[in-house]
Amino acid sequence: MKKFKSSKIQKILVTSALPYANGPLHCGHMVEYIQTDIFVRFLRSIEEDVLFVCADDAHGAPIEIKASQLGITPEQLIADVYKEHLQDFKDFLISFDNYYTTNSPENQHYSDLIFLRLKNKGYIYTKDIEVTYCEHCKRTLPDRYVKGKCPKCNAPDQYGDVCENCNAAYKTIDLIEPYCSICKNKPVRKTSMHYFFKVSKFSKKLELWLKKNKNLQPEIKNFVHNWIKNGLEDWNISRDSPYFGFKIPGEDDKYYYVWLDAPIGYIASTDNYCKKHGLKTEDYWNNKDSRIYHFIGKDIIYFHFLFWPAMLFGSDFQLPYHIPVHGFLTVNGEKMSKSRGTFFTARDFLQKYDAENLRFYYASLLSKTMSDIDLSFDDFRKKINNELAANIGNFCYRTLNFLSKNFEGKIRDIDKNKELVDEVEKRTKNIEGNYYELNFIEVVRDILHISSLGNKYFQDNEPWKLIQEDKEKVHKILGLSVNIVKNLSILLQPILPNFSSNLQKQLNLSNLKWQDINFKLKNHKIGKEEILIRKIEEKEVPKQEFPLNLKVAEIIGIREHPNADKLILLDVNLGSEKRQLVAGLKGHYTNVELKNKKIIVVTNLKHAKLRGVESQGMLLAGDDGSNVGLLTVDKSNAGDDVYFEGFENLNRELSFDEFLKIQMTVQNSKVYFENKELKTDKEVVRIERVKDGAKVR
């Protein structure tokens, strides 16, 4: 990749993939935003004209459906999520110049503009197609609301647009053994008119773009070349109502597919910024001397390397200069999963650790490839404690502290140690090149090496001893050490902006740029020093209390209630004991369906007589007004604890009135309390038969 200073680049536009506006950011998301932010902060440090934009991806059926479940409008949902996302980005020090939303007038303008340009050039046509329709939900199912086996690799439980296993794109109707992800019923096929974009017409242009662009990762180019070679299919860019998004011009019940207007959000956010600052959007999107960077994850390669460039080709916008692709995040060696306890929101992380700890950790793992990275908390603590605190933090503090105590914080001249200076300058050049190349793992290694050199230099000279013999020599040693500290504050600034800013404040300096990396700081008085990085002391996050004591119970007997037609008696095994429950399940479940079923029981509810028969607890079930469904497990054993992650079940006796105050929700056949899934150590609890929003009682 060419260095910008040697080129005629006027403006640089950098984007991150748009987070979806129906839920919180998680630690997997933060890989990309931290990676992008580090790069942008480096560009600012070398004083490039860079603009960093992003936006919430705020359209699509999932948002419309979730808003309906919550009893609010889609507009209210995306507004609430937008605030949460902004706060998370702020707390993780992500320095967007403009963070916007795709549900904006600018985005509608550019979506219509691009659509009409493509249509007028003959790249868009309509035809009748078969779509998946759920007769139970009474709606056409969008891509993300139908699942099945991938038609390419046969991987199970894949969405209706792109396989997460092999990255293949396909039509929803091509799924094998499809099912509605809302109600789990098998959908039917219906005919509907839709708009298509002739992606196939751009095969040669895309091939040439891939061939000429030397910045794109080789392994990604091979993926995309193979897709083009196998033949590109025209892209369905419309969706049937109900749908939350922009209507296609001239249509009443057809909307832009979210993947059409989502990347256009890059242009819209740029335009929003430019209008507020008296700039021209075309200077970024229609200027051969500008460069556009799209940072993405490997799950959206197909859209950003084929559909999006084809749209830009066809509508006369500039193509990206580079599309850096990162891999997935695993946690402690496992795929992020709520059921495995390896899913952490960005907010979860911040409740326990400092944001810059994660920025440093991710930087120490991110290379210029799309390899997956692992958030191993053991490795995380070791890196922070041994590298960030014991190496960098220790060198900076001991240098400034010794200077303050012995020389009133003043440096005059510096020690002429050419070997050390040359090595630092050599490593600095490596760091600069690796920042350009997005090879942050090597950046961190070289920064740690420089800090280690500083520590060794300080230790080898033993200034605490030498000061008794040659105070002037010690003063020069500290002068050189302070210059290394200053240089480290600049080298680390893209990764640790707060640490670097605070360190420069201690040095009585501010707003240092890359050009300030040198050994020229003399005759200078530093400010008050303090420890800026502390080791992580592993502490358990105190769990919140949950009033119910929940256990897995196996039904071992079913009897008629002697005094009630709609009640039955269940004998259940709780592992260490057996109990009798009175349950209103008659007419909802047969005895055959109930026999040996593993259910969830509230064990600390005050025993009560129902129509003359004692119930020694209560089973949990959902009721949506039409259907009643039990909470069930398969892999767990009778007596296993059932809990919400981060909450501790209580054993105290609970009244029925107290129980009624507990609000649990149903979504996608799972039960939630304060956004945490109900689970055992072996699996997530499932709820049968009921719709999202059902009451759990």
Report on the architecture of this protein:
The protein has 697 residues and is α+β, with helices and mostly antiparallel strands. The chain has four domains: 4-111 and 260-331, HUPs (Rossmann fold), CATH 3.40.50; 122-254, Methionyl-trna Synthetase, domain 2 (Beta Complex), CATH 2.170.220; 377-525, Isoleucyl-tRNA Synthetase, Domain 1, CATH 1.10.730; 544-696, Nucleic acid-binding proteins (OB fold (Dihydrolipoamide Acetyltransferase, E2P), Beta Barrel), CATH 2.40.50. It is 36% helix and 22% strand. Strands 21, 22, 23, 24, 27, 30, 32, 33 and 34 form a nine-stranded antiparallel β-sheet that branches. Helix 2 crosses helix 3 (74-91) and helix 16 packs antiparallel against helix 17. It is flat, with a radius of gyration of 30 Å. It starts with 10 loop residues before the first strand and ends with a strand.
